[in-house]
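Milestone 3.1: sequence recovery, worked example.
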């Protein structure tokens, strides 16, 4: 596990003030977040004992072609319950399909006309959101975009698998690597970063920071 922390969202809180009621901007806890290098052998061995077989089989298959980073989000007051089921996915191919679908949509006749739904987004809105907000960062290099995202849920939260191609050959690189993602909190978004040791990952171990 490489990142664990509280999620706090801004909230307008009414407070008494001179001449009437006023408002202040507070941060309230809304849950917790964990970020793991899921395809590391040590992490997969642990998950094999506590996760669903469906999740274990999917992770084994995906780890053959991708480096997999898991973003695990739990609401406030929830305890970690595993048995994750994957339910949505997103990829560059779907990005292209979405662009084509939007281009073919007829012009809307008015603000009250929602137009036709775009089938490619049904069931995958969350995965698409994670896809657009996640990156790998190495000093001196351009940001690396995901190759695929698989999203799912367990009893109390969400699990998103953000994948990057094995062709990056990160095992041959030294130094640290940052994974950055954005999380919706209230009406806004907040960035979160986890740092991984590439040398440790090459040895099948994710260093906790």
């Amino acid at each position: 596990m490489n990142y664990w922390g509280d999620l706090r969202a801004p909230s307008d809180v009414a407070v008494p003030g001179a001449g009437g009621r006023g408002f202040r901007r507070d941060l309230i806890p809304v849950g917790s977040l964990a970020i793991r290098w899921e395809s590391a052998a040590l992490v997969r061995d642990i998950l094999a004992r506590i996760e669903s077989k469906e999740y274990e089989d999917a992770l084994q298959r995906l780890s053959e072609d991708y480096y997999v980073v898991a973003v695990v989000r739990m609401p406030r007051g929830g305890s970690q319950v595993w048995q994750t089921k994957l339910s949505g996915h997103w990829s560059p191919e779907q990005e292209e399909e979405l662009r084509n679908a939007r281009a073919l949509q007829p012009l809307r006749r008015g603000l009250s006309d929602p137009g036709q739904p775009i089938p490619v987004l049904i069931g995958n809105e969350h995965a698409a959101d994670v896809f657009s907000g996640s990156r790998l960062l190495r000093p001196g290099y351009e940001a690396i975009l995901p190759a695929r995202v698989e999203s799912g849920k367990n009893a109390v939260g969400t699990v998103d698998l953000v994948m990057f191609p094995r062709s990056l050959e990160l095992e041959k690189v030294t130094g640290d690597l940052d994974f950055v993602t954005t999380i919706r909190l209230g009406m806004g978004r907040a960035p979160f970063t986890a740092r991984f040791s590439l040398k440790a990952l090459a040895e099948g171990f994710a260093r906790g920071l």
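The first strand starts at residue 3 and ends at 17. The helical segments are 41-50, 53-63, 92-104, 125-133, 198-202.
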